[in-house]
Amino acid sequence: MNAPKAKKIDKSLEIHGHQRNDPFFWLNERENPEVLQYLEEENAYCDFVMKDTEELQEQLFQEMKARYKEDDESLPYFFNEYWYVVKFQKGKEYPLFYRHFKSLENEAELMLDVNEMAAGKDFYDVGSFSVSVNNQLAAFSEDIIGRRIYTILLKNLETGEFLTDKIENTTGKTVWAADNEHFFYIRKDETLRAFQIYRHKIGTSQEEDVLVFHEEDETFDVSVYKSKSLEYIFIASSSTISDEHWFIPSNNVFAEWQVIQKREDDLEYAVEHYQNDFYIITNEGDATNFKIMKTSVDQPSKEHWKEVIPHKKETLLEGFEIFKDYFVIEERTEGLLQLKIIDNSTGKSHYLPFDEPTYTAYVGLNLDFDTEVLRYGYTSLTTPSSTYEYNMKTGETKLLKQQEVLGGTFDAKNYISERIWANSRDGKVKIPISLVYHKDTPKSAETPLLLYGYGSYGHTIDASFSNVRLSILDRGFIYAIAHVRGGEYLGREWYDNGKMLKKKNTFFDFIDAAKFLISENYTSPKHLYAMGGSAGGLLMGAVMNYEPEIFNGIVAQVPFVDVVTTMLDETIPLTTGEFDEWGNPKKKKYYDYMLSYSPYDNIEAKNYPNTLITTGFHDSQVQYWEPAKWVAKLRDLKTDNNILIFKTDMKSGHGGASGRFESLKEDALEYAFLLKLENNGRN
């Protein structure tokens, strides 16, 4: 079977006096039968190329699935007189939401069976589930396409009946007012930007809903949330570099919204409430790694802010949790998350002890103010996800739940994790790399290694456990994460030096990390593989263009690769809100820089690694046509005989298939691709 060949239709794109020809531009015609035919041809070709791995894919899928406890349930949490639990039943793909009145010993009340809601649908996702203050009504949201556009529905928990209320085109989130008659929700515009906050009254139609906030600046998105104290409802409007928050008392939905601090360029802040004060985490006053302030509810603007936790150059403040007698801070120092406990009465502080070389820890769900117990999470490359309770007064730690790994073969002692540091080509930094491998896996030029990367939006890829990953670790792979610039692993400057006109640092850091692993004899180019998704797919496309010869295979998941064309089109979801991440190409300096690295625009007639590219036809974050065009152009220009396959899930979006286990088939395909290459490489 020959590889598909997309037809070419010249399309001239011009700006700043510069012309580009995009012969595959037509692939963005979602309803065009020829586009659908091309995608199906690529799917058929992918199946053909991977035909010899069908048994392996099924084996991988079954062993991945077998590690999960099918009849699992979440850790219960208590809130407003009820214990809440989410359960999974054997043989079912979707969760069931339960609650118990006052005691877990009391009979469980089934609030929602998502399996029933998803019956007969190709895709189904519940975006949120929230219960009214009087515990009588539940608002939940559903997406049946995969485009992250949710419809909000209501259920009477006392009668089991669904209300007639139906609210469409939302982000899915609902925030209940204290009166049990109203809630707030967020609408999306045609580019899927969250831009309006509405108030809904139970029992009325969506047409009667009241608009309470409209964000007209297309670079800002809005959100709505309730304070932990439950006393205030906040609206947050945020861009990459600026925030603005408004508030009303939760018991008065008709109150006038008050601003905490008007937006300013480069002023970021987030707010929580305790007693008579707002606590604010902010970068105000050049606090690059953030500091914590507080101010009276009556005088919330920044001239009244008083410092509680000062800025530290070497430590990034990521968040905080307020209790009656304690204050808990999430800090990141030298890449590792730490939890700092402060006694409000004495001012004394201490850290929770974590001793693995690379891990992640985080504050969990803590809804109770008046408690001395902190619930927190911990995981590492060798430790399954775990939830603990820590008594902040006595220092006692109790394990509440740890992710079970079934199948009878997993023992954490059989795996080794490390953190090493590679030199960057600019000589300015060292790039952290987290690794994990089976104790019987040697480090050598013959050892396969999968290097993962992301590096955008300040999003940090921490070292965490993966059930799925065991399938390649147990087959002799080393797995590594390159913590490249563009994330916030080493603080806010680490992010700032991997965005806008410094974006290439992200790509070069990944390449330098790969070369370091080769030089240190962890692997070799014949056995080195790379993987990344979304903006991490951009990373994959860029490193393929820069130095294709150091990778034997690349997996690019839902890749953002047509950077210039997408960022010039403000009708595409997310574009306007990301000018502070990538730059606005309508300004020539950003256009020129973006054009110099955009993967699609820099494909050349040369050899490329073996490549698997995946997407979802309904993807709302990265439109399917970006990877489709990229594949078509690669096929047209590449000079090698290496594998290039493209898989489009015609039923899903950015997050892949819905359901608990269906997405494992995507993992199985990716791992089978890597193992196919690796086995061929050994012949």
From TrEMBL:
Domain Peptidase S9A N-terminal as annotated: residue spans: 4-403
Pfam family, one: Peptidase_S9_N
UniProt cross-references to Gene3D superfamilies, sorted A to Z: alpha/beta hydrolase (3.40.50.1820), Prolyl oligopeptidase, N-terminal domain (2.130.10.120)
Compartments (UniProt record): Periplasm
A Gene Ontology term for the protein's cellular component: periplasmic space
Keywords assigned: Hydrolase, Periplasm, Protease, Serine protease, Signal
Molecular-function GO term, any one: serine-type endopeptidase activity
Statement: the UniProt record of this protein carries the keyword Signal: yes
Protein task: Cleaves peptide bonds on the C-terminal side of prolyl residues within peptides that are up to approximately 30 amino acids long. Has an absolute requirement for an X-Pro bond in the trans configuration immediately preceding the Pro-Y scissible bond.
Family label: Belongs to the peptidase S9A family.
Protein name, per record: Proline-specific endopeptidase
